[in-house]
Amino acid sequence: MIGRPSLAQPTGRKLLSQMAFTLRCLVLVAVLWGLTACGTATLQASTEYQTVTPSTDGIGRVYLGREIAQTMGHQGAGWLDRPSRVLQERPQAAIAALDLSPTDIVADVGAGTGYFARRIAPLVPQGKVLAVDIQPEMLAMLQAELEAKGIENVEPVLGQPDNPNLPPGSIDLALMVDAYHEFASPREVMEGVVSALKPGGRVVLAEYKAENPMVMIKRLHKMSVAQVRREMAAVGLNWVKTDDRLPEQHLLFFQKPA
Q1: 213 to 191, 218, 219, 222, 223: CA distances (angstroms)
Q2: 184 near 211, Cβ under 8 Å?
C-alpha cells in the first residue's frame, strides 16, 4: 500500500532549503565585507581629505579613515578646569609620564585655558611652555590665569586651524591633550609641529580610549591606538610607546628622527 508521505520528508527538504539559503547569505555577506574592507583600506591609505555627510559631533571631513570631531568652543572652557578632572583623568600622572627636564621647551598644542601648561610650567624653570590655541577667547582666559598666579614662563601663541605658528627647531616636546582629534587640518598642523621639533624631539598625545566602551565620551572624541599611530606615521614620526597608566586615556609617545 502506498501510504501518505510522512511529515518528516517535506520538513527535511525545507530544512535543507533553509540551510542552502543561509549559506548563500553568508557568502554574500563575506563578499560585501571584503569589498568594504578594500574600500576602507583605500580610504585609510590616502592622506588626502575627503568629504562626507557630517555625523553627530563631526565636521564631515575625513582623514585616514577618521571623521574629524567638532571643536569644543570657548563657551565650554569651564569643563576643562572642572575639579573632578583630578580624580577622573589623573592629569598629574600624565605630566609625570612626560619625564621633563628643567630646560625643556614644551608646546601645549590645543592648550585651551592652559590647564596643562600651568601645571607644567614649574617643572621647566629654565625652559618655557608655548600654549597654542586657535581661539583668542581661550588664550585670554589663560593669560588671566597666568597673571593671577604669577606664572612667567608660559607664552600664549595664537595658532591657525592649519598652522600651530611655532618657530622651526624650537621645541623639545609637543603635548596634545584631548585636542588632536578636533584639529580640522591635522596633517598640516602636525607638519608644523614636526618642523618645530628639535631633532629627536618628542610628541605625546593623550586621547580617550576608543577601544573601551566604558569610557563615556562621544565616539568622535575618542581615538584608538592604531588610528593615532597611523596618523603620526603619515608625518614621519616614529612610535616609541603607548602608556596606559591613565584610567580613561591613552598616552602615546612619538619621536622625530634625530
Answers
A1: 31, 10, 9, 10, 12
A2: no
